[in-house]
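input
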Amino acid sequence: MAAHEILAATNAVVTLDVAIPGTVWPWLVTVNMWAKSIGTGVIFMLFLLLRKHPESAKNLRFSTTVVSIIFIHIFLLFTLADLHQPFRMWHIFFYPHVTSAITIGAWMATIFVGLLFLLAFFAFKKDDAKYDKLLIPVVILAIPVTMYTAALMSQCTARELWQMPTETAQMILAALLSGSAAMILLGGNKLDEKAQRTLGVVLGLSAFMSFVMYMAEYIFGPMKAEEVAAVLEYIKGDGPYTVMFWLGQWIAYLIPMGLILLARTNNSASILKLAAILAIAGLWVVKHVWLMIPQLLPMS
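output
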């Protein structure tokens, strides 16, 4: 954090390098990312189900849209709560800085919410033709809405752990994981066996890919930069977040992967639902650890 002071005699600007005290992004941002993943993820999964299993998904249009609206508003609420000056949020729209990921993300999220309400209207009116036609651009917009937080994190140039390519992939995988898990719970008995298997495959593969990426960073990250090596010490050995990190990996990824295989073997919808619940809960833990540990390292 830079502290500026203007000397009266010379009008010179003196910049002092001051360490940032404490964490800038608290658990509010974790809820932000977690809720957004569910809000966009269910839209991705509804689109998939309507293409592959239209008979199973035909009665899920309205309920899925409502769930998406709820979680996107949770995301927006916690975004607003985390702002240092929440009541000046309107400046983002009337005095925008297009080089800021926050500005671009706010505009995209606002348009996304508007389209979601239009989808809900079509679903309520049971106008499936218009709903399905509008769903395509909504899905396309959901992609950058999902990813923009990765751009915001990558703009924190002092945080070497948050890199745009890996964080973008993790945002998409989080949306697929939480979206498929939420649809398994939301669909319930409305989904036939094939639709449940499809969602189970998406959930399992998303969990596997996310776990592999975290392990790659965990093992090979210290070779990339000394800062990353120092940050990862917080989740190794007696680090303050070691237990939480591994709890998150097991609850979000490893246990659900095992349960999905067990569910496919025994054709059990109950086991699949348990995997979905654990994945959603564990995702919050994983996101929180990854958000907090780079902020524990004192730096400017």
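quick obs: The chain has a mean pLDDT of 89.
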